[in-house]
Predict the 3D structure of the following.
Amino acid sequence: MQKTQKVPSTISSDRIYSQTPPTTEATFLYSVPHTTGAMSVRETPTLSIQSQVDLTGLVKQLNQITVAIPEPDLAIPRVAALLGEAFQVDGCLVMFSTPTQVGVRTAWWIAETGRSLLSSPFIPAVTQTNWVNTDRLDNGTPTIIPDVQALPSNSGARCCVQELADLWPSDATSTHSFPYRSVLEVRVQLPGMPLGRISLLRSRPYSWPACQVEQLEIIAQQVMTLLSHLNLQQQLKQQATYQGVVKQLAIAIRNSSNLSEVFQLAINGVATALGVSHGLLLRLKYWDPLFRNKAGEQIPKAQVTVTCEWFKEGYESPSSSFLGSMAGTSNQSFWLSECTLCQYAFLHSPKSMVINSAQQILGHDSSPTATVFQVGERDTLLVAPLESQGTVLGFLVLRDDQPRSWQPEDIELVELMSAQVSTAIIQTETLRQVQSLVEKRTAELKQSLAVQAKLYERTRNQLEQLRHLNQLKDEFLDTVSHELRTPLTSMALAIRMLRQTGTEGDRGARYLDILEQQCAQETNLINDLLTLRELESKQTTLQLEELNLVDLVTEVTASFESSWAGKGLKLDLEIPRDPLSLWSDRESLTRILVELLTNATRYSEPQTCIRLAISPRQEDAINQIVLTLTNQGAAIPPEELPYIFDRFRRCHSAVQNAVPGTGLGLALVKSLTQHLNGTISASSAPTEQSSAWTTCFTLVLPQAVGSSI
């Protein structure tokens, strides 16, 4: 009766051995049937408890290797060495692949040299087909060959030996091309699991005991599971790297307006992520813009320009001095008709072009390839067109100087990057065209707005003038109607009183005085209006004569003494001691002084002082006379100060306090001053020691009217 014993849970398997391999020295191909269920091991003298502990320790060491070395290409040689040493054989082969990969990772361990050899990251797909699609054996069935030389010539095991000989590394140190006599091999391929092969080799004939067969089968499952886990992690890391490259490019396209920076980032990112030797980004410039949307029909007249070029670190370009990892612009260009490679990619757009062997495009005089590709005999190429809505914008070219099987995810990344670059090109060109159109329209709009602004300003000035004239008209009518109606009312009343009987003596004389005063007021108003009209139309002629200014001022101020005494006003007269003469019009100058003194008397606070100062000065070689008249009274607000010399313009305070006046006095002063080639200005500021404001009029006249100031 057979006994079974469970292997520790760290070792997973679902196979049960039902018989023991022969121990004779006859050469045979040994197959062991399997059943499904919990793993059990037939108890034999060679499978002891200690062997199980060693197997568990071996699994732990495998776990440590996969944790310490996350790269499958680096982990497989270590696994081969660990298995060879654990089983104490002369050689060990470990092959690993996944259902989605085209090639196979292969590693040899040779006891004679004590080192592991990684034949290549991937061996050609044809080799994989030979050892995967064999009808000799069922999947997962161990292959036991005690003596290779004893195999019949027509034996199926000969195929296994021949495969091992074909995979034997050329740089292995051995006296024979394939120096092994005995083989124990396990192949693993389960649904959803990796495809793998582990071969234990001995240089002499050897009868493999059942315990080693069972241990190899168990450990093969564990090895492939761990390698599959590493491969999955590597794929996830690769996908994360690819996603990072695409994301970085998308952010650059969104944030950068410099298309050259986007090109450099794209070629650097995709070439670095795929680990190629050389990367190019080519742009097409069509001589006939209408041909842009005819891709796939015929080869157009177009120039191909190398926009950006990249070399990996440590790779030296055969045709340049570039060394080290770099991406830069280039001015190299050629015609599309001069390069068969570009023509083929153009005609097959939007599909990518994969060239696994450069021999496909080399060695044909009728099929030249541009020198910028620098294609060698062992090179592989991947060319993705930059395409948008049927228009080929250029090409994204990746070249590797080693044999390479381009994976679907590699092609997908390159096509995605080319789509991003195409979008950036279209986006930039569209934005440039829009900006150019916007700038043109903006310039036209600015020019139109400038013309409209001038028209608006002219219209606004005209409206302002009309408004001002209309306001002056209203003010004129209000003032004139008031100034005319008031005297006429007084005159009518005086006449009515005189018609009454008994109006004699002093009473009659008083009414006559009223009539005379009101009639004089009406006459003065009319005269002032006529004078202003004559001055503005420049119809008045000057009667020039030499005047003694001191005598003229003394004469004018004497006529105001009675009115000043009634308000308690005092005059502070500052005149030079020496006679001061000027050549001017007496009547005009006298009227200016009278109006200024009248204005000062009318608006001064009682018991204050009116100050009149006269002084000569010279400015710009012109002799001038400066008269300054200052009084203290009501304030002139800053907003009203610029308009006090306008006709019928009176301060708001004067109107509120019913101060008599027509609003023509200062207008006459300004017109007469200009008539004498002089200037006049006014200022009003608060007084520190009282609530009254100090108002100052400054009159500047040339000593000779013919001089202009």
User: Anything to note?
Assistant: Residues 408-499 form the longest helix (92 residues). Residues 15 and 34 are 5 Å apart (CA to CA). The radius of gyration is 58 Å.
